[in-house]
UniProtKB/TrEMBL annotation:
GO molecular function: N-acylneuraminate-9-phosphate synthase activity
Organism: Heliorestis acidaminivorans
EC number: 2.5.1.97
Keyword set includes Transferase: yes
Domain of life, source organism: Bacteria
UniProt-recorded name of the protein: Pseudaminic acid synthase
Keywords, sorted A to Z: Transferase
UniProt keyword Transferase, yes or no: yes
Name of encoding gene: pseI
């Protein structure tokens, strides 16, 4: 059975991805601890990123290569310095993926250039993730698509036209399934800028599975996205925000990831299907509806009035809607107080 049938589908519970990113703080031991913690929290997959500072940018610490944005988490660093700090050494990939497999999770990665795709292919990753900043890199999209493996693409900053081009290129190059993740590329993001109503619109527009790459604090946006049809969820993950890390400010801790996994599944289960009327389990509760009862002893020939006929619980009598029909009618036999009303009485 293909991956897209077993993992990325509205028929299955939401697929939860824990994103390690650079939160390992350049410690393989810490990276493996993050894998263990993600598995214990119930994540289905753990994602890392495959690049080096040299494959990402130039070693220049001025002009546009230097981060001066006042509200940036990484203000005061050059791009090169940031990627040196955040990258996951390529020799760590295999032990990280092996630990994922041991713990019953899928290990995979985000490639950032063609060399990283080739490297990840040598490790046999089952699918790929494309970051928001690379969703317009059509040569990279084409390269990944030629692996004939599913591709998850974050949509941050992309216009409809750009996404249309990206999805078409991926499919035409052989990608068997594209999954688009609604994403707001600010770190952290706010609920007000998340715009998750875009999720069902993307599903209809591009005819693909959809999900959420969530950079907000907490799990509220994630749970809400499930109700809108999100089938894949990605959240950054860390052992402890207090210990720091390049993405620590907007990463979930283990107890939060566990809550996300549990509540996402509950939200998905609650979607159910469009249905009216009592469910099988509700039928037993129907006896607690109101119905019409005789509330005073009555003799043959007595007339139903508002004093001796009322709508009360339980629900064994006629429905309350018939009270106006019954008022003024005579009973044909003696009736004790507390008797459920039926048509044979009149």
């Amino acid at each position: 059975m293909s991956l897209e049938c077993t993992l990325f589908s509205q028929e299955k519970e939401p697929f939860i991805i824990a994103e390690m990113s650079g939160n390992h703080n350049q410690s393989l031991e810490r990276a493996l601890e993050i894998v263990d913690a993600a598995a214990e929290a119930g994540a289905h997959a753990l994602k890392i990123q495959t690049y080096t500072a040299d494959t990402m940018t130039l070693d220049i610490d001025e002009r546009e290569f230097f981060i001066e944005q006042k509200d940036s988490l990484w203000k005061g660093k050059s791009l090169y310095q940031l990627y040196q700090e955040a990258y996951t050494p390529w020799e760590w990939h295999k032990p990280i993926f092996e630990r994922c497999k041991e713990r019953g999770m899928i290990g995979f990665s985000t490639p950032f250039d063609e060399t990283s795709v080739d490297f990840l292919e040598s490790l046999g990753v089952p699918f790929y993730k494309i970051a928001s900043f690379e969703n317009i890199d059509l040569p990279l999209i084409r390269k990944v698509a030629t692996t004939k493996k599913p591709m998850i693409i974050s949509t941050g900053m992309a216009t409809i036209a750009e996404l249309d081009e990206t999805v078409r290129v991926a499919k035409e190059a052989g990608c068997p399934q594209v999954v688009l993740l609604k994403c707001t590329s600010t770190y952290p993001a706010t609920p007000e800028t998340s715009n998750i109503l875009t999720i069902p619109h993307m599903r209809d527009l591009f005819d693909v599975e959809v999900g959420l790459s969530d950079h907000t604090l907490g799990i509220g946006a994630t749970i809400a996205s499930i109700s809108l049809g999100a089938t894949v969820i990605e959240k950054h993950f860390i052992l402890s925000r207090a210990e720091g890390g390049v993405d620590s400010a907007f990463s979930l801790e283990p107890h939060e990831l566990k809550a996300l996994v549990e509540e996402s599944k509950r939200a998905w289960q609650a979607l159910g299907k469009i249905t009216y009327g009592p469910s099988e389990k509700e039928k037993a509760s129907m006896k607690y509806r109101r119905s019409l009862y005789v509330v005073e002893d009555m003799k043959v020939g007595d007339v139903f009035t508002k004093n001796n006929l009322r709508a009360i619980r339980p629900g064994y009598g006629l429905p309350p809607k018939y009270i106006d029909v019954l008022l003024g009618k005579k009973v044909r036999k003696n009736v004790k107080k507390g008797t459920a009303v039926n048509w044979e009485m009149i």
